Amino acid sequence: MQILAMKRNLSQSPGFSTTNPVCTKESGRSHMKSNFRISVSRISWMGIALLMLALPLPALAALGGDVASVHEDQAHMKGSLNTTEATNYTLHEIKGAAGTVVREYVSPAGEVFGVSWQGPSIPNMQQILGSYFQAFSTAAQAQRAARRGRGPLNIQQPGLVVESGGHMRAYSGRAYDPGKLPQGVSANDIR
């Protein structure tokens, strides 16, 4: 195999690498190798990332969020919405197309203080926990590392309680912030 290095005077162009291409000859065939694909690939990925950041993302009703986005949750889940007024809160129940039911408990001030779910699959926890997701994720990993096997998840922290369990095609759980429960509402009301 014979390797020939070629130098070319290429004008500087944004996004294109001007590294020296290598020409190889193997069995009389010439193959040109360069970093062109890598440079274009990096530009493409950066463009996609910037485009994704520029697109508006739906503000989904999540624990600690406001009531204004409940309809967006309904659209995201492709489900039906049923609203029930209780004495100290409003219950928004969304039944998704796949059969999972998510209940969002909203205080008179318009803030989601609790969520619960039941159905054949666990909902997107990042969606329903919102800003509480990082605390949930850290606590769940620690709990799973401390025990062997499977079992229900039970996180009890000062600002977050998550209880989740079930088996294939039958999951249920709830999450709430004990400090945000409205007057006259107990944790037992979140079911």
Describe the protein's architecture and organization.
With 191 residues, the chain is α+β, with helices and mostly antiparallel strands. It is 24% helix and 31% strand. The protein folds into two domains: 53 residues, no CATH class; 123 residues, no CATH class. Strand 5 and strand 6 form a beta hairpin.
Short description:
With 191 residues, this protein is of the alpha+beta class.
Features:
191 residues, 7-stranded antiparallel beta sheet, 24% helix, globular
* Rg on CA atoms, Å: 27 Å
Number of domains: 2
Strand arrangement within the widest β-sheet reads 4-5-6-7-10-9-8
Mean pLDDT score: 78
Which residues form runs of ≥5 with pLDDT under 50? 4-11, 38-60
Question: What gross morphology would you assign?
Answer: globular
Number of helices: 4
Structural class: alpha+beta
Separation, N- and C-terminal Cα atoms: 72 Å
> How helical, in percent, are the residues?
10-25%
Tell me how many strands there are.
10
Could you tell me the strand content as a percent range? Answer: 25-35%
Largest sheet: 7 strands, antiparallel
Element order, helices and strands?
EEEHHEEEEHHEEE
List the helices and strands and how they pair.
Layout: E1 2-5, E2 22-26, E3 29-33, H1 36-54, H2 70-77, E4 80-85, E5 90-95, E6 101-106, E7 112-119, H3 125-129, H4 133-146, E8 153-157, E9 160-167, E10 170-176
Antiparallel strand pairs: 1-2, 2-3, 4-5, 5-6, 6-7, 7-10, 8-9, 9-10
